[in-house]
Design a protein that fits this description.
TPR_rpt; TPR-like_helical_dom_sf; 288 residues; elongated; mainly alpha
Length: 288
């Protein structure tokens, strides 16, 4: 197939079912012209199953793809390993996931598929124990930073953010700040305002972790004002952080911040399902 459509551009990770429909519209032509493209496309349909927690369906489709792999389809083989690993990881089997990702990392390096090799390394960091995560993030960042390929370098913001949070969890706050500042700089240079707002929130969270509550409050207040000026939706996490710092500073506005945070975050379906205690605490601190 000459200049086949970029199937990765069809992704909406928040709506895997709709993504699957778009992938399926590409299949008929792919089946008649390009085996590797077809198999890669099918791995993404498997991923839509995984994201919907349809793990048996994802594994079955990956099994079917695996039977059709050849020496001429190394990239499809690499994607099978990645999606198999993601399926295991989503199901909570991190050990099996890590094995798949490590194989994908080695295969990606062997075939110089650096974009997918970095994907594998960043997934190893997600599946690995905390003490191993920083090393894998670092390997992925170094590979991306050395590359002149725009697509490969496009991983950097994600990697800087992931490394920042790994270092945060390790209590290495100064190093975490360096990573999150790199993430912010990347998004500012690429005019991604929404992602830049998130990076600024991450830096303010680090300020709180380091006991710099007045600085964090100032950073968050400015961020809240900049979000409003950009006519972007209010962010409940910003109000939550404002509340946490105000609480330590004995600022009477703390309850108001928590109330706004609770109102916004209680509308988040994922948080309602996975963060009931967090929401209950916000409501209590808001004195609602």
């Amino acid at each position: 197939m000459d200049n086949p459509p970029d199937f990765m551009a069809q992704w909406d990770y928040r709506d895997p079912a709709a993504s699957a429909l778009r992938f399926n519209t590409l299949l008929p032509e792919a089946r008649t012209t390009d085996l590797q493209y077809e198999l890669e496309l099918l791995t993404q349909i498997a991923r839509t199953h995984s994201l919907q927690r349809q793990f048996a369906e994802a594994h079955q489709l990956l099994d079917d793809i695996e039977l059709r792999l050849t020496e001429a389809t190394p990239r499809a083989r690499l994607r099978v390993l990645l999606e198999r690993g993601r399926t295991f990881n989503s199901a909570g089997d991190k050990a099996s996931a890590k094995t798949q990702f490590e194989q994908a990392w080695q295969l990606g390096l062997k075939h110089k598929e650096l974009y997918l090799a970095i994907d594998a390394a960043h997934m190893i960091a997600i599946a690995a124990p905390l003490e191993e995560q920083s090393r894998w993030n670092q390997l992925a960042m170094e590979l991306a930073e050395r590359s002149q390929d725009k697509q490969v370098r496009g991983w950097l913001a994600t990697l800087y953010n992931n490394q920042g949070w790994t270092l945060f969890e390790l209590g290495r706050f100064d190093e975490a700040r360096i990573s999150q500042q790199k993430c912010l700089t990347w998004h500012e240079q690429h005019n991604n305002q929404a992602k830049a707002f998130i990076a600024r929130w991450s830096l303010a969270r680090l300020s709180r972790a380091q006991g710099q509550h007045e600085q964090a409050h100032a950073e968050l207040t400015q961020l809240k004002d900049d979000i409003a000026a950009a006519a972007a939706p209010e962010d409940g996490y910003v109000f939550e952080e404002l509340g946490e710092n105000a609480l330590v500073l004995s600022d009477p506005a703390a309850a108001e911040y928590f109330a706004r945070a609770w109102f916004l975050l209680s509308q988040d379906g994922w948080l309602r399902a996975n963060g009931a205690e967090r929401l209950a605490r916000l409501k209590q601190l808001a004195k609602l």
